[in-house]
Design goal:
By secondary structure, the protein is α/β, with parallel strands linked by helices. The chain has helices spanning 11-22, 38-48, 62-71, 86-91, 93-113, 149-167, 201-209, 237-253, 270-281, 305-311, 319-338; strands at 2-6, 26-31, 54-56, 74-79, 118-124, 172-178, 180-182, 216-219, 231-232, 234-236, 256-262, 268-269, 287-290. 46% of the residues are buried. Bound molecules: nicotinamide-adenine-dinucleotide and uridine-5'-diphosphate.
């Protein structure tokens, strides 16, 4: 019996594949490589020394998914596949709704045909919108003040999966709301590969340290936070990956829908992260303060109690680990591009 990971050539999925294989699970990977490279799949094999089937397939293609379910004995699905760039989602909303919702619906249909009844979904803290008090708890109202189509896709998919589970007493749905995943595998072989100029903070920091970007602009230093910069719940991607193992085990034992925040439960400011990166790696990151970025919330972080109590999972790695591992990954990418 295997776990199907959609989108596992990508950042979070590849780390989850490694953790599942290390825990002795069988996996099957499907990804259309729209935002990833096949070397990530090879590197999952290299890190773990284990093999698994890889399907280069579009999850929206129901026939292709049926073939995967026909050929493999799939017990549960972890659904990472989707588009994730907030800015791009504002420019190309239909593309985002089509891919993110379309992959989920085609998966649910194939799962039903082949009697697979467990799905774990990559949701996001963005569903909490902009009105909830911090820290965010799973029972808070979602959907108020979501400001972009990407966030709406996460909200809508949570709804679709919850409705599907309400209608089918056999179905197990686990919604994982990620906070800000950064870091990389300590081998330096897998990590986050942004397309073009990074939008997210950590890839911008590593590229600035590597000299690819001249300097980092910290968006806003007049927020009502301790040092005036935004605060986020940065979580090491390997910790996040381990949360999926716990979620799979939970889904094996429970029906219906359950929601878990995957965060550390501790806010760290943008400036703190930059300084931690400089300290941990002994490299310079030139930065300047710029205006606030539209749509950014001053601060948010997870109440991580439920995942600890129910799943027995909590984040273990430090900000220094995140900074060191992100830098090792950047150095690995640089060494490849220089070859
Ligand atoms: P990623 O882009 O690195 O990985 C997503 C993978 O899905 C890519 O490998 C891409 O090729 C694949 N994919 C996309 N559409 C596909 C399709 N139609 N068929 C097959 N494969 C397809 O992103 P990630 O950072 O690893 O994120 C994984 C999931 O977690 C996404 O759903 C994302 O929205 C969600 N998430 C990410 C973050 C974050 O900060 N990285 C935060 C919250 C939620
Ligand atoms: N940020 C920044 N400069 C950058 C990119 C991001 O100051 O070049 C800040 C951003 O304003 C936010 C935090 O870093 O406060 C995290 O942003 P990111 O895009 O990584 O994740 P988000 O919290 O938006 O999901």
């Amino acid at each position: 019996m295997a776990i199907l990971l959609t989108g596992a050539a990508g950042f979070i999925g590849s780390h989850t594949a490694v953790e599942l294989l290390n825990a002795g699970k069988e996996i099957v990977v499907a990804d259309n490589l729209s935002n990833a490279e096949e070397t990530a799949v090879e590197n999952i094999r290299k890190i773990t020394g284990k093999d698994f089937p890889f399907y280069k397939a579009d999850i929206m293609d129901e026939n292709a998914m049926d073939r995967v379910f026909e050929e493999q004995d799939i017990q549960s699905v972890i659904h990472f596949a989707g588009y994730k760039a907030v800015g791009e989602s504002v420019e190309k909303p239909i593309m985002y709704y089509e891919n993110n919702l379309g992959t989920t619906i085609s998966l649910l249909k194939s799962m039903r045909k082949f009697g697979c009844s467990r799905i774990i979904f990559s949701s996001s803290a963005t569903v909490y919108g902009d009105r909830n008090p911090i820290p965010y708890r799973e029972d808070m109202q979602t959907g108020i003040g979501i400001t972009n189509p990407y966030g709406w896709t996460k909200y809508m998919i949570e709804r679709i999966l919850t409705d599907a589970a309400a209608a089918d007493p056999d179905l197990s749905v686990v919604l994982l709301r990620y906070f800000n995943p950064i870091g990389a595998h300590e081998s330096g072989l897998i990590g986050e590969k942004p397309n073009g100029i990074p939008n997210n903070l950590m890839p911008y920091i590593t590229q600035t340290a590597a000299g690819i970007r001249e300097k980092l602009t910290i968006f806003g230093n007049d927020y009502p936070t301790e040092d005036g910069t935004c605060e986020r719940d940065f979580i090491h991607v390997v910790d996040l990956a381990k949360g999926h193992l716990a979620a799979c085990e939970y889904a094996d034992e429970h029906k219906g829908t359950e929601i878990f925040n995957l965060g550390t439960g501790h806010p760290v400011s943008v400036l703190e992260l930059v300084n931690a990166f400089i300290r941990a790696n002994g490299v310079d990151v030139p930065y300047t303060f710029g205006p606030r970025r539209e749509g950014d919330l001053p601060a948010y972080y997870a109440d991580a109690t439920k995942a600890k109590e129910v799943l027995g999972w909590e984040a273990e790695k430090t900000i220094e680990d995140m900074c060191r591992d992100s830098w090792r990954w950047e150095c690995h990418c640089r060494s490849l591009s220089e070859e």
